[in-house]
């Protein structure tokens, strides 16, 4: 196409003046048109013309169009490229302009400028076609050698690239099929060259000269690639690297770092593809991913869809398609774990053990989903966690309170920026295995809205007949949820959607008596809080009567959550005292904290020398352990919120 003798261009050509880039015969360039004469040319010639001839224009490089059409034309570069305007796109933003897609046909030289306004037109002489007739026998031989040499370098260069990339394979074929004299122009526009170099190639009208000038450019590119491959190899030996030379579409003074960044990104895509191929995803998923990666390779990175597709593929790779933890269920051990972690709640623990025993015997449980129903803070979540612990599984809590959109469960379709997978798939990604314990917290707080009914989506998730091929809208391929152990919690069954309730076995978890709460506090909550605050029993002492005081005067709840919080507040206050005390000198004659004294005495006595705030006021180090009596309680938690109840 490029320098073919068959091309006959008109003898008069309208001229498009460009200064940013150089179009060579045989290559394509996108150029922006916004100066007066160039705009005129597009409007009156390209947009109004009806014949093929009218789409042929002369592209003059290295010459900028004056900013006003009254200004004189600058000196025109004498040699240009006759080009076919393939596409014209107009836009009014940020200012009126056109974007032209032009394909170079052949060189021409300006013989005479015929007119300057409204756009320049010149009488021209076609150059490339004449070339074939200008050299004698000797130079033809020399040219044969030169072109052979050029061809060899070109083949070497192309073969250094990844032939599995379709564009590279095509280029390799083109090297054999195109006339040799077209190759210098085409390769110059593909490899990394400056505008100045391109201009020199354009000006090299004699073929021999053109070959001579392009060979060093090819050699330079080959050496550059070799160097790049060497450094890459030492960095990451086993990864197959693709080094792609960039087509001439970009303006070639784009910085090298930008190009390298792009190459790196390209490498990332190759890595991603490798990960996809080696991952254990389902056949269906693999097919979709390979299709997407193919699209990704062709997509410019600036497209919003590029990031979307990439995120999608990365998620697909990360998902635990085939990764699971090994169940280690031993009923006796499970009983010990449950007893150790929780005081009281005998009925619940009994039912959980039965459930686990059946699981152990049947291996695959398609039974109902356990749903713990009870007031807040009675240990529903914490039992769920213990179940995961006894099974040796990962635990993940999915809060459903207030969820009113079914895409929260099932994900958004991947059609807009910001789409995400649903909570189930997200949870699987977080835990990284396909058989975790999922605690669906507060199923009674699911709401309905215009965005669909999340309960319906949840039904599908929980249905053992369906959930082996659960399809999240974002993934758009099935994921097997049958290995996931679901447990639900709720405060009441009244608001659980009936269809959902039907799938569940409800286990009531009633509130605790005061005695139970005291036991829970001393066996579980206080040791946990001490550990959380870095305290030891030698530093703080909370008598049972104080705990009872907290329960009756500071909390009013069925569970133990507020109690836990109050204990946390006490530990914080004591931690400050302990930390302060470590910096103060001991003054032994003060603050005889009534160790072992009955706390009741402190309440009845008017004097309260052991109060935690007093010791602070007097800047004395506290005596260990710091006893939390009612005065201390008042100092830390404020005055009691409720009247003492008769217990
Ligand atoms: P729920 O999920 O019912 O709202 P949580 O499981 O979050 O309650 O429990 C709140 C806190 O109370 C947790 O720290 C938990 O360990 C503790 N807790 C509740 N019941 C008991 C119990 N019977 N034994 C030990 N700790 C308990």
TrEMBL record:
InterPro entries: AAA+_ATPase, ATPase_AAA_core, Lon_lid, Lon_Prtase, Lon_prtase_N, Lon_prtase_N_sf, P-loop_NTPase, PUA-like_sf
One GO location term (cellular component): peroxisomal matrix
Pfam families reported for this sequence: AAA, Lon_lid, LON_substr_bdg
Biological processes per GO annotation: protein catabolic process; proteolysis
GO MF annotation list: ATP binding; ATP hydrolysis activity; ATP-dependent peptidase activity; serine-type endopeptidase activity
UniProt entry keywords in alphabetical sequence: Acetylation, ATP-binding, Hydrolase, Nucleotide-binding, Protease, Serine protease
Residues of the Lon N-terminal domain: 13-222
Main location as per UniProt: other
PROSITE patterns assigned: LON_N
Protease found in the keyword field: yes
Record-linked CDD domains: RecA-like_Lon (cd19500)
Location within or outside the cell: Peroxisome matrix
Cytoplasm is among the record's keywords: no
Complexes and interactors: Interacts with PEX5. Interacts with TYSND1. May interact with enzymes involved in beta-oxidation of fatty acids, including ACOX1/AOX.
Protein name in the entry: LONP2 protease
Name of the gene encoding the protein in the UniProt record: Lonp2
């Amino acid at each position: 196409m490029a320098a073919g003798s068959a091309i006959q261009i008109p003898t008069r050509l309208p001229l498009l003046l460009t200064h940013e880039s150089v179009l060579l015969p045989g290559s394509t360039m996108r150029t922006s048109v916004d100066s007066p004469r160039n705009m005129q040319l597009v409007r009156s010639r390209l947009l109004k013309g009806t014949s093929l001839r009218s789409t042929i224009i002369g592209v003059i490089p290295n010459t900028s169009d004056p900013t006003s059409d009254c200004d004189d034309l600058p000196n025109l570069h004498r040699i240009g490229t006759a080009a076919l305007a393939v596409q014209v796109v107009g836009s009014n933003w940020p200012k009126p302009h056109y974007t032209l897609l032009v394909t170079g046909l052949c060189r021409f030289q300006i013989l005479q400028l015929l007119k300057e306004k409204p756009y320049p037109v010149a009488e021209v002489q076609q150059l490339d076609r004449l070339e074939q007739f200008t050299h004698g026998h000797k130079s033809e031989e020399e040219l044969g050698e030169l072109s052979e040499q050029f061809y060899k370098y070109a083949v070497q260069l192309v073969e250094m690239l990844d032939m599995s990339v379709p564009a590279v394979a095509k280029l390799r074929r083109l090297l054999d099929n195109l006339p040799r004299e077209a190759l210098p122009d085409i390769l110059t526009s593909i490899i990394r060259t400056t505008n100045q170099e391109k201009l020199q190639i354009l000006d090299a009208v004699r073929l021999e000269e053109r070959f001579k000038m392009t060979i060093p450019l090819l050699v330079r590119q080959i050496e550059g690639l070799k160097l790049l491959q060497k450094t890459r190899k030492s960095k990451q030996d086993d990864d197959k690297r693709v080094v792609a030379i960039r087509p001439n579409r970009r303006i070639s003074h784009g910085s090298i770092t930008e190009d390298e960044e792009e190459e790196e990104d390209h490498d990332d895509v190759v890595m991603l593809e490798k990960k996809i191929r080696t991952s254990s995803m389902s056949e269906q998923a693999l097919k979709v991913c390979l299709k997407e990666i193919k699209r990704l390779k062709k997509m410019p990175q600036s497209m919003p869809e590029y990031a979307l597709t990439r995120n999608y593929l990365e998620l697909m790779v990360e998902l635990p398609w085939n990764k699971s933890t090994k169940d280690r269920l031993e009923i006796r051990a499970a009983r010990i774990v449950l007893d150790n972690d929780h005081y009281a709640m005998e009925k619940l623990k009994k039912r959980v053990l039965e459930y686990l025993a059946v699981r152990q015997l049947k291996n695959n449980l398609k039974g109902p989903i356990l749903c713990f129903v009870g007031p807040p803070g009675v240990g529903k979540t914490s039992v769920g966690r213990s179940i995961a612990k006894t099974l040796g599984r990962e635990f993940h809590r999915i809060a459903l309170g207030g969820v009113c959109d079914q895409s929260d469960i099932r994900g958004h379709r991947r059609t807009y920026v910001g789409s995400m997978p649903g909570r189930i798939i997200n949870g699987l990604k977080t835990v990284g295995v396909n058989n975790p314990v999922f605690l669906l917290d507060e199923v009674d707080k699911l709401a309905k809205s215009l965005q669909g009914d999340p309960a319906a989506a949840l039904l599908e998730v929980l249905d053992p007949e369906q959930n082996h091929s659960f399809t999240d809208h974002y993934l758009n391929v099935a994921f097997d949820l049958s290995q996931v152990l679901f447990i639900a919690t709720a405060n009441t069954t009244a608001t659980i959607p009936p269809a959902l309730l039907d799938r569940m076995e409800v286990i009531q978890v009633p509130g605790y008596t005061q005695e139970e709460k005291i036991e829970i506090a001393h066996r579980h909550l206080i040791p946990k809080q001490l550990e959380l605050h870095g305290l030891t029993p030698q530093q703080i002492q909370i008598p049972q009567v104080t705990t009872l005081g907290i329960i009756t005067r500071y909390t009013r709840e069925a569970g133990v959550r507020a109690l836990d919080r109050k204990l946390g507040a006490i530990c914080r206050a004591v931690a400050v005292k302990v930390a302060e005390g470590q910096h103060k000198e001991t003054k032994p004659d003060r603050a005889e904290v009534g160790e072992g004294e009955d706390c009741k005495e402190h309440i009845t006595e008017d004097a309260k020398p052991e109060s935690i705030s007093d010791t602070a006021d007097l800047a004395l180090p506290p005596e260990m352990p710091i006893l939390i009596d009612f005065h201390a309680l008042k100092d830390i938690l404020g005055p009691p919120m409720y009247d003492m109840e008769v217990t």
